[in-house]
Write a structure and sequence with these properties.
Number of domains of chain B: 2
Distance between the termini of chain A: 48 Å
Oligomer: heterodimer
Strand order of the largest sheet of chain B: 3-4-9-6-8-7
Strand content of chain B: 15-25%
Order of helices and strands of chain A: EEEHEEHEHHHEHEHEEH
Number of helices of chain A: 8
Number of strands of chain A: 10
Helix content of chain B: 40-55%
Distance between the termini of chain B: 24 Å
Shape of chain B: elongated
Order of helices and strands of chain B: HEEHEEHEHEHEEEHEEHEHHHHH
Number of strands of chain B: 12
CATH architecture of chain A: 3-Layer(aba) Sandwich
CATH superfamily of chain A: P-loop containing nucleotide triphosphate hydrolases
């Protein structure tokens, strides 16, 4: 039925209204992403890639067209149902990390579980958060606040938060936009590791070299797909890092 | 710090409510206690506001009540438990080398029961003393101290208008009356002795009548008026030459004033509570704006609008409740200080504490709801992009 596609967009349009004007942001996009892919979504600003990302992340609904996530059409759900989908199936990583200030790394990672339907004890929450933090290389820093962590470490906390509920897909919106190049490569290294473990990743970026760490590059322009091709010469973060040192 | 300043509004509001209502209730309780000290189910009769010749003298002035009137009331009014005939005068009393001007009250032996005024030492005079007009008396605490100092006055001789009276007992102190008169500056003796030796004359100043059952009070009052009008041959349409007051009427007048005061103080304090609530609303609106990104993140990871609403409501209620608790403590402290230094009686009831606290929490919900709903209605995309 879903022939292996985790994400299926069918002729998706999104039009914003500003007063009398109708501004089309996405004008008919059809896209399939299979389980275990690592897709970089590229395009200049105004190309509609952020809008498409919001729709993929169930933060926004398409004006017309359908979005089938994990075999279920989610294009017509209400706010609360979309919130549940985001909680269970999607992990977000943002450009500016978006961690809660004055809150420890562990509590930041636990946040999605607070809103999840399953009820865990505090000890279970803690155990799960610590395990995920360790998997992104932050074991021992569970009690640090965001202000005590470097940008790269904050982004790792954000990745851990995205992973806590075992999502179907991780959506990363310019995850390296606020990081220096070395830290960017480290973060890409984490994404590649996660992808090796079978986690599906969709990443928005406008940097060609960052997109080179993905397996597939999709380019948008003026609200439609311009190109969609597999990455032939894939960069490997580990090799890149050892080269630099 | 900001939260403290915000909560300050509620602290002051709740504190003011507690202190003000405490003062009001204290005043009311004091008045009620004094009214109750008149005795239970007591009807007071004062002789004459108007003499036969038309001169209006005020209560007790005209001497229109006779001993026979008291006898008639005892005999003919149903439900009467006790009657005490009353005469009084201000007289110089002396013992040894001390003398003192005090109020001398003539009463029957039932007087102490009617006014629920037990003796601290010794015994009251007896009905036999009243019948024989014996030269005995009991003294109030103030009079005893003025004449005898720390000596026990029981059994001593007190000269009143040069007539020696034997002191049989000392009354328990009653303190000041609602009018500020020292009720313990008194000598009480049988009314027969008082009429014969001290006051002179054959008429009574008034009577204290005690009724057995509170429900019969107004009926008894009407019957007494009718009986006395008939006995005094007052034609219909003419004024009474006496005044009948129930203890309840006196209590109502006295408590009405303090009730108004309590209400007024409470209302003023309530206004400051509302102002405190507006402060909470203001700070919550600022907080929602400042934390727009946080709200966006929470929504992105799966928070429902209701989760956000609940979170901000809880914060508002926490703020107002903590303010409420501190306010209650401050209010209790303030009324204790007022009692101690200004000698204002204060009474803090559990109910006023509970009401103030619930009101503070309700203020939090009421003024926190709008900001919380605003937060819950945010669009997650906009919220995440907010700088």
């Amino acid at each position: 039925m879903n022939n292996g596609a985790l994400v299926r967009l069918i002729d998706v349009h999104k039009t914003y209204r500003t007063g009398e004007m109708e501004v089309p942001a996405v004008r008919g996009v059809s896209l399939e992403i299979k389980r275990g892919e690592f897709v970089a979504l590229m395009g200049a600003s105004g190309s509609g890639k952020s809008t498409l990302m919001n729709i993929l992340g169930c933060l926004d609904r398409p004006t017309t067209g359908h979005y089938v996530l994990d075999g279920a059409d989610v294009s017509g759900l209400d706010r609360d149902r979309l919130a549940d989908i985001r909680n269970r199936k999607i992990g977000f990583v943002f450009q500016n990390f978006n961690l809660l200030p004055r809150t420890s790394a562990r509590e930041n990672v636990e946040l999605p579980l607070v809103y999840s339907a399953q009820h865990l004890t505090n000890a279970q929450l803690r155990e799960r958060a610590d395990r995920v933090l360790a998997s992104v290389g932050l074991g021992g820093r569970e009690d640090h606040h965001p202000s005590q962590l470097s940008g790269g470490q904050q982004q790792r906390v954000a990745i851990a938060r995205a992973l806590i509920n075992d999502p179907e897909v991780v959506l990363a919106d310019e995850p390296t936009g606020n990081l220096d190049s070395r830290t960017s490569v480290e973060i890409m290294g984490i994404f590649q590791q996660l992808n090796e473990r079978g986690i599906t990743i969709v990443m928005v970026t406008h940097e060609q070299d960052i997109a080179g760490y993905a397996r597939r590059n999709v380019v948008m322009r003026d609200g439609i797909l311009l190109s969609d091709k597999a990455v032939t010469q894939r960069a490997v973060a580990e090799a890149e890092l050892s080269k630099r040192t | 710090m900001r939260s403290v300043l915000t909560a300050l509004g509620i602290i002051i509001g709740v504190g003011a409510v507690i202190a003000m209502v405490g003062i009001g209730n204290g005043a009311k309780a004091q008045v009620e206690a004094q009214i109750a000290s008149l005795g239970q189910n007591v009807i007071l009769i004062f002789s004459g506001s108007t003499t036969a010749s038309g001169i209006r003298t005020g209560w007790g002035g005209a001497g229109t009540l006779k001993i026979e009137d008291a006898e008639a009331i005892r005999r003919e009014i149903p439900g009467v438990v006790a009657v005490s005939e009353e005469v009084r005068s201000i007289t110089q009393v002396a013992a040894g080398n001390q003398n003192w001007s005090t109020q001398v009250l003539g009463e029957s032996a039932e007087y102490f029961d009617i006014r629920q005024w037990p003796l601290a030492d010794g015994a009251p005079f007896t009905p036999q003393d009243v019948r024989s007009a014996n030269k005995v008396c009991v003294v109030g605490r103030t009079t005893a101290t003025q004449i005898y100092g720390n000596e026990n006055p029981v059994g001593q001789i007190l000269r009143i208008k040069n007539v020696p009276f034997v002191i049989t007992g000392v009354l328990t102190p009653k303190g000041l009356s609602p009018q500020g008169v020292d009720q313990d500056d008194i000598v009480i003796m049988p009314y027969t002795s008082a009429m014969k030796r001290v006051v002179g004359g054959t008429t009574l100043r008034g009577m204290n009548v005690q009724i057995g059952d509170a429900t019969e009070m107004s009926a008894a009052q009407q019957q007494i008026i009718a009986l006395l009008r008939q006995r005094h041959n007052i034609r219909p349409g003419r004024d009474d030459d006496f005044t009948v007051r129930t203890q309840q009427e006196i209590a109502e007048t006295a408590t009405a004033a303090s009730k108004v005061m309590t209400l007024l103080l409470g209302a003023i304090a309530g206004v400051s509570l509302v102002v405190g609530g507006i402060g909470i609303m203001n700070i919550m609106l600022v907080s929602v704006t400042e934390r727009t990104r946080e709200i966006g993140v929470r929504m992105a990871v799966g928070a429902h609008g209701s989760d956000i609403l609940t979170q901000f409501l809880i914060e508002a209620v926490t703020l107002s409740s903590v303010g409420g608790v501190i306010g209650i403590i401050c209010g209790i402290g303030a009324s204790k200080i007022l009692s101690a230094y200004a000698h204002w009686p204060t009474l803090i009831s559990m109910s006023s504490i509970a009401i103030a606290f619930l009101f503070a929490a309700a203020v939090g919900i009421f003024f926190g709801f709008y900001p919380a709903r605003k937060a819950a209605a945010l669009d997650p995309i906009e919220a995440l992009r907010y700088e």
